[in-house]
From TrEMBL:
An individual GO BP term: pyrimidine nucleobase biosynthetic process
Protein name in UniProt: CTP synthase
Lineage, highest ranks first: Eukaryota, Metazoa, Chordata, Craniata, Vertebrata
Gene from which this protein is expressed: Ctps2
Family, similarity comment: Belongs to the CTP synthase family.
Catalysed reaction equations from the record: UTP + L-glutamine + ATP + H2O = CTP + L-glutamate + ADP + phosphate + 2 H(+)
Gene Ontology cellular-component annotations: cytoophidium; cytoplasm
Gene3D superfamilies: 3.40.50.880, P-loop containing nucleotide triphosphate hydrolases (3.40.50.300)
EC identifiers of the protein: 6.3.4.2
This protein's pathway: Pyrimidine metabolism; CTP biosynthesis via de novo pathway; CTP from UDP: step 2/2
GO MF annotation terms: ATP binding; CTP synthase activity; identical protein binding
Top enzyme category: ligase
SUPFAM superfamilies xref list: Class I glutamine amidotransferase-like (SSF52317), P-loop containing nucleoside triphosphate hydrolases (SSF52540)
Function as written in the Swiss-Prot or TrEMBL entry: Catalyzes the ATP-dependent amination of UTP to CTP with either L-glutamine or ammonia as the source of nitrogen. Constitutes the rate-limiting enzyme in the synthesis of cytosine nucleotides.
Length: 560
């Protein structure tokens, strides 16, 4: 097993996840099996209870793990399926060690950070690195891992300082991602932050084999030589990644700077110097992305719109679908509270700007979420999409609110609501699930990959999924559509075309006599891949561009 540790310096959010994923993609294109582990130093057991504004979206895995969004990047780039134990947190490690101590495994010894916590980290990494993540179920050959040097992350840094000797030099490589800022006042690219960052890392006992320098603009050769000289590495060990038009370009930038040749020598890998067809496909995809001329605009109506990372997987799923049909995506984020009547009274300019965005969009998407804030605005957007026959996709809460909107405006149940927002509603069209335990918040939802069975052949989504009788997608919800009231909706044209395997839980809705009005209880964005777009999102983009019927008539084949 070869281990590649990716550390970050200067600032957080520098792009460790994308760079680690891109390196994994390059190694996979050389025929190697790659897995990935993300190390987060927070004390939370997992990311499930975070506000999206803290760390971006919560990514859900097949086994129900609620993890950091970087694991989403790993899955999309490498086309693998990871597990909850591929995300290590301080909370998980300490809980594991404390449980062992309570069990008596340490035989009366004083349990300390060194060696017990650091040993637990190393043991976890070695065990998880062997778990197959590809469809062929073979053991991986390379394990990528990422962490940072905050004060709370010191036990992990110390664990890897020890681990480099345990794994041996030819099996362990450290990549340090740093920032090369360019102040507007001088316009000069500054290397001092990178020098200090590498010095600090060396002081902790880790010496970088590759230094990946992030910058806004391409870095000059003189800067590369300066970093090489002051950071004690060869010039070819300094890699530049400037801001690019799309993340698809990053693996290509890395490959152009000789990273395959370096890894082959440094880790003694049994590979050719040239990448295979997989990287050629990435190159074609990156070039196609940059040449797109036709634009499709989608309005994303949500409540976490100030930070794009809150909807990272949704954005990627839309981007994958737009690229598949040769359109450039114009994603307009609309804060759902700005569509509400209360905003019109407080700030009429914001209100009218939000509605202007919504009205000019080619399609409307209402993603998942929790809590009552902004729900009235989402209901307004859904009502607009339904009545004006605008293509619409509702995901999780978006589907539940589509049911609430239909009940209020088509069934004339004016007090229809979800028990999440009004526990005493007379018409509970959305209810909490019987197995949900309101005591604990963490890990108590219906999570992970579950089967949805189509109950009719006359379904747009079934055709988009390749006419399969069932689909398996990832879930993350506490509430569900009330199965006792579904017959009222079906009589008026809102069809529940997909159920769970028992037939009690409503999974997919479709509205008759509408170009594309679809709601799904699951989160299809978590399974979307750059070369395999998610069918519900693809359907939205096809309907928004007016090409859905032609696509269905071709037997769900994309035009060349």
């Amino acid at each position: 097993m070869k281990y590649i540790l990716v550390t970050g310096g200067v600032i957080s959010g520098i792009g460790k996840g994308i760079i680690a994923s891109s390196i994994g993609t390059i190694l996979k294109s050389c025929g190697l099996r790659v897995t990935a582990i993300k190390i987060d130093p927070y004390i939370n057991i997992d990311a499930g209870t975070f506000s999206p504004y803290e760390h971006g979206e919560v990514f859900v895995l097949n086994d129900g793990g609620e993890v950091d969004l970087d694991l989403g990047n790993y899955e999309r780039f490498l086309d693998i399926n990871l597990y909850k134990d591929n995300n290590i947190t301080t909370g998980k490690i300490y809980q594991h060690v404390i449980n062992k101590e309570r069990h008596g495994d340490y035989l009366g010894k004083t349990v300390q950070v060194v060696p017990h916590i650091t040993d637990a980290v190393q043991e976890w990494v070695m065990n998880q690195a062997k778990v197959p993540v590809d469809d062929d179920r073979q053991e991986p050959q390379i394990c990528l891992g990422g962490t940072i040097g905050d004060i709370e992350g010191m036990p992990f840094v110390e664990a890897f300082r020890q681990f480099q000797f345990k794994a041996k030099r030819e099996n362990f490589c450290n990549i340090h991602v740093s920032l090369v800022p360019q102040p507007n006042a001088t316009g000069e690219q500054k290397t001092k932050p990178t020098q200090n960052s590498v010095r600090a890392l060396r002081g902790l006992g880790l010496s970088p084999d590759l230094i990946v320098c992030r910058s806004a603009k391409p870095i000059e050769m003189a800067v590369k030589e300066k970093i090489s000289m002051f950071c004690h590495v060869e010039p070819e060990q300094v890699i530049f990644i400037h801001d690019v038009s799309s993340t698809y370009r990053v693996p290509i930038l890395l490959e152009e700077q000789g990273i395959i040749k370096y890894f082959k020598q440094r880790l003694n890998l049994p590979i050719d110097d040239q990448p295979s067809d997989l990287l050629m496909k990435w190159k074609k995809m990156a070039c196609r992305y940059e040449r797109l001329l036709k634009v499709c605009s989608i309005a994303l109506v949500g409540k976490y719109t100030k930070l794009s990372d809150c909807y990272a997987s949704v954005f990627k799923a839309l981007e994958h679908s737009a690229l598949a049909i040769n359109y450039k995506l114009d994603l307009m984020y609309i804060d759902s509270t700005e569509l509400e009547r209360s905003t019109e009274a407080e700030n009429s300019v914001k209100y009218h700007q939000a509605w202007h965005k919504l009205c000019k969009a080619d399609g409307i998407l209402v993603p998942g979420g929790f809590g009552i804030r902004g729900t009235e605005g989402k209901l307004q957007a859904i009502s607009w999409a339904r009545s004006k026959k605008k293509p619409f996709l509702g995901v999780c809460l978006g589907m539940q609110l589509a049911v609430v909107e239909f009940a209020r405006n088509c069934l004339n149940w004016k007090d229809a609501n979800s028990t999440e927002f009004d526990p005493d509603t007379k018409k509970p069209v959305v209810i909490d699930m019987p197995e949900h335990n309101p005591g604990d918040m963490g890990g108590t939802m219906r999570l992970g990959k579950r089967r949805t069975v189509f109950k009719t052949e006359n379904s747009v989504l079934r055709k988009l999924y390749g006419d399969d009788t069932f689909v398996e997608e990832r879930h993350r919800h506490r509430y569900e559509v009330n199965p006792e009231l579904t017959h009222c909706f079906e009589e008026k044209g809102l069809k529940f075309v997909g159920h769970d395997t028992e037939g009690n839980r409503m999974e997919i809705i479709e509205l008759e006599n509408h170009p594309y009005f679809v709601g799904v209880q699951f989160h299809p964005e978590f399974s979307s891949r750059p070369m395999k777009p998610s069918p519900p999102y693809l359907g939205l983009l096809l309907a928004a561009t007016g090409t859905l019927n032609a696509y269905l008539q071709r037997g769900c084949k994309l035009s060349p």
